[in-house]
Amino acid sequence: MVAVNGEPVDDWMHFVNIVRGSPGETLQLTYERDGEQETVNLTPGRNSLETGDEIGYIGAGAQQVEWPAAFQREIRYGPVEAVGQALSRTGEMTLLTIDAIRKMLVGLISPSNLSGPITIAQVSGDSARAGVEAFVGFLAYLSISLGVLNLLPIPVLDGGHLLYYFMEVVRGRPVSEKTQAVGLRIGLAMVGTLMLMALYFDLMRLW
């Protein structure tokens, strides 16, 4: 990166700060490749922070540095330790998913962060190209997220059935079929709306 809007770029973080401070603005980027300089127009997207502010982003990063062998270490766990580590990581991912849902409900996270099948397929491909560890980690997080969503107290989901069972224990008798039918319609409407929103935001990202 040589310059942005004619202003010389000192280092990578200087470029990052320019992009973050220019959401939706068209920037004239000058870069050098193979000894030749080229100029292109670059328009950072908009990303909303929890504070309500917007920052620009382009989905690019600096190339990772190859660490010398002296700075690398390998961590291995035995069968028993591996189970403990797996349970700990699963708990962390579960809490992360629940917190993300909470923030979305109270408006701290924009609903545009919802992802559907298109984004999932794209991220799956990217993680697969990054290696087996990244791909398996993504599949694990995806499975945990779906599991948490499935346990939400919404009719038609498993969490909705658990809610009915809990109400049956408290009331001493099952929930009426009429009430369950109404709940089923509400649940279908909620899940259907969520799926349509996720697909809509997927298509918007493609465009």
From TrEMBL:
Short name of one Pfam family: Peptidase_M50
Subcellular location: Membrane
GO MF annotation list: metalloendopeptidase activity
Membrane topology (UniProt): Multi-pass membrane protein
Entry keyword set: Hydrolase, Membrane, Metalloprotease, Protease, Transmembrane, Transmembrane helix, Zinc
GO cellular component, one term: membrane
Main localization category: membrane
Domain of life: Bacteria
Peptidase M50 domain segment(s): 64-191
Cofactor(s) the protein needs: Zn(2+)
Transmembrane segments: 134-157, 182-201
GO biological process, any: proteolysis
UniProt cross-references to InterPro entries, sorted A to Z: PDZ_sf, Pept_M50_Zn, Peptidase_M50
Family matches, as PANTHER family: MEMBRANE METALLOPROTEASE ARASP2, CHLOROPLASTIC-RELATED, REGULATOR OF SIGMA-E PROTEASE RSEP
Family the entry assigns: Belongs to the peptidase M50B family.
Protein name: Peptidase M50 domain-containing protein
